[in-house]
Amino acid sequence: GDFAEAVLMGCQAAGIHTAIETSGACSWSTLERLLPYTDLVLYDIKLVDDDAHRRWVGASNRTILDNAARLARRGAEVQVRVPLIPGITDTDSNLRAIFDLMSDWGLSSVALLPYNEAAGAKYEWLDLPYSLNAQGQPREALEAMRRMGLEAGLDVVIG
């Protein structure tokens, strides 16, 4: 809101490169307000399938996908970031769907974020249940995902 806008505005006025990181699960007006003062939008997309998104995230992804498309239409500099959750977001079908949407929208930069096996410890510290007992993707699997993105015409980084 107001604070983020003021900080971004001040940074740009001082010649400091600005970026925001968002899941896009907010009103378009919130993002739109920050755009004039934002050089780069780091935009998380987890799942394209709305039913899967509801199951794993607990809410629809319609606003998230709509906002990503709007950012692209506005010509914003966007890097899509995909947290790779084993068997959930790192599947070929989900990654292909994300890459296809990016191509449709005219976005070309994607960061694949390997699963962090230490994630469960954060839940433990907060005394919260953590049911995902997964291991990070092997280097070969990450490379195959990167190649899939490159074949879709995208600029792909891992990490």
What would your notes on this structure say?
- The chain has 159 residues and is of the alpha/beta class.
- Helices cover 46% and strands 15% of the residues.
- The chain has 7 helices and 5 strands, in the order αβαβααβαβααβ.
- The chain has helices at residues 2-13, 28-34, 50-57, 62-73, 92-105, 119-125, 139-151, and strands at residues 19-22, 40-44, 78-83, 109-113, 155-158.
- It has a 5-stranded parallel beta sheet with strand order 1-2-3-4-5, covered by helices on one side.
- Strand 3 (78-83), helix 5 (92-105) and strand 4 (109-113) form a beta-alpha-beta unit.
- The longest helix is centred in the middle third of the chain and has 14 residues, at 92-105.
- It is globular and about 45 Å long.
- The relative contact order is 0.13.
Q: List SSEs in N-to-C order.
A: HEHEHHEHEHHE
What's the mean pLDDT score?
91
Which stretches are poorly predicted, pLDDT < 50 over at least 5 residues? none
Helicity level? 40-55%
What kind of sheet is the major sheet?
A: 5 strands, parallel
Shape: globular
Strand order of the largest sheet: 1-2-3-4-5
Please work out how many helical segments DSSP would assign: 7
Structural class of the secondary structure composition?
alpha/beta
Strand content range = 15-25%
Please give the radius of gyration in angstroms.
17 Å
Spatial gap, N to C terminus? 29 Å
The strand count comes to: 5
